[in-house]
Amino acid sequence: MTVAWYAAYGSNTDEERFRRYLAGCRVPAEPADSRPFVVDLPLYFAGTTTRWGDGGVAFVGPERDPQPATLARAWLLPVERIAEVGAQENRLPIDAARLDLDAVTAAGLLSVHEGWYDAWVSCGVLDDLPVVTLTSSTAREPRNPPARAYVEVVARGLRTTHGMTRKDVASYLAPRTMLPIRTLTEWQTEGSG
């Protein structure tokens, strides 16, 4: 398999943000397609990162959700570029990129990196091609609401990808971020609704 879908559920739902990772690949890549996608893994925010202003970042739990509800954006890319995005997410050199689609599909979840996003997870198929995402193989603690800068990027990606209003995005994110709907609505600086 030379191409697959990468299901992005956090800041990488936003095209501008995701293109930064693509620009950092060995061969800068242009996605062949992108689509709204729903992942059957629960979304939560944890850890603390100064990259986004001292808040948590998005993860999906490794246990399957009986009611798929995590909104994502599926990016169609060469498998090598997906692997390189994974290395960058973990602040590893591009040479550390690892993604064996057959092994991930067989295992369901396969830990391959050291870092916060250490595991590839199989998320099914789209147009007869595998879909994978990247997360932590174990639940990250402590749960921590994201900072405003991170929310703005995630919200912009969700509005663009899923055609959501600011209010819809705030309602979707509130139980997952532990932030009030009002705060999440105010933090969205662009978009409709």
Describe this entry's structure for a reader.
- The chain is α+β, with helices and mostly antiparallel strands and about 190 residues long.
- The protein has a domain at about 5-135: Hypothetical upf0131 protein ytfp (Roll).
- The protein is about 30% helix and about 25% strand.
- It has six helices and eight strands, in the order E-H-E-E-E-E-H-H-E-E-E-H-H-H.
- The strands form two sheets. Strands 2-5-1-8-7-6 form a six-stranded mixed beta sheet.
- Helix 5 (about 165-175) packs across helix 6.
- The mean pLDDT is about 95.
Shape: globular
| Relative strand content | 25-35%
Average the pLDDT over all residues and give the rounded result.
93
Q: Give the CA-CA distance, first to last residue.
A: 40 Å
And the CATH topology of the domain at 3-135? Hypothetical upf0131 protein ytfp
How large is the count of helical segments?
6
The biggest beta sheet, please?
A: 6 strands, mixed
Beta strand count:
8
- Helix-strand category: alpha+beta
Q: Residue share in helices?
A: 25-40%
Low-pLDDT segments, ≥5 res: none
CA-atom Rg in angstroms: 15 Å
Features:
alpha+beta; 193 residues; Hypothetical upf0131 protein ytfp
In a nutshell, what does this entry contain?
With 193 residues, this protein is of the alpha+beta class. Helix content is 32%, strand content 27%.
Task: Set out the fold topology.
Elements: E1 3-8, H1 15-23, E2 33-39, E3 43-49, E4 55-60, E5 70-78, H2 79-89, H3 101-107, E6 109-111, E7 119-126, E8 129-135, H4 148-162, H5 166-177, H6 181-187
Parallel strand pairs: 1-8
Antiparallel strand pairs: 1-5, 2-5, 3-4, 6-7, 7-8
Helix pairs in contact: 5-6
